[in-house]
Task: structure prediction
Amino acid sequence: AQKVTQAQTEISVVEKEDVTLDCVYETRDTTYYLFWYKQPPSGELVFLIRRNSFDEQNEISGRYSWNFQKSTSSFNFTITASQVVDSAVYFCALSEAPGYSTLTFGKGTMLLVSP
Amino acid sequence: SQTIHQWPATLVQPVGSPLSLECTVEGTSNPNLYWYRQAAGRGLQLLFYSIGIDQISSEVPQNLSASRPQDRQFILSSKKLLLSDSGFYLCAWSVLGTGKAFFGQGTRLTVV
Result:
C-alpha cells in the first residue's frame, strides 16, 4: 500500500524567509510519480511539479525548488524568499507509474506567510 | 485547451436527502476521471475513478456512488446523505499513465 506523510501540519513564516515543506513516502512500486499541489483558500488544487522515480535530479523553478532523495524516500519542497501569496495548503502526493493515475495524498501542510 | 467544470460550488443538504454532483471536462477525449473528498483537517481521499464510459472503480465503501454516462461527464450521487458525507468534493481528470491530474474548483457539501 502507498502512504504519504507530511509531518508538518502548519508552518508560519514572515515574508522573505525561506521555508521547507517535508514529504516522506512509502510504496512497493519500483516506478512511481511524486507530486506537489498547492491549494489556495479558493480550494482548487494547483499542480506544481511531477517527478519520476528514476529521476533524482533536483529541480528549481523560480523561487520553488524540490529535493528528491530516493534513499530516504523523501521529496521536500523549498520556497525561497516566501511571499504572502504563497500562503496555502500544500499537498505531496504519490501515484504508481504507469497506472490509472490515482493519487495518494499526504494530509497537507498549511503555510502561513505574514507580511 | 482543456477545462474542467464542477458544480455546484456550495451545497447545504439535510440528512437523508439525495445528492448529485456533476463534473464535465472539455477539450480532451477519453480522460481518466476521479472523485476525491477532503474532510476537515485531512488530506484528499480517492473515492472513485473511471477509465471509460460506465467503467467505475470504487476505492472506499461508503454511502456514495458514481456514474459516467458520457465520455467527459462524471457524476457523484447518494440516495440518502449522512452527516459524515460533509466535506469538500473535488473532481479531476488525467491522461492515462501520466499521473498528472487536473482538478476542478470543488464542491463544499454540508449535511445538516
About this structure: The longest strand of chain A covers residues 88-96. The mean pLDDT of chain A is 92.
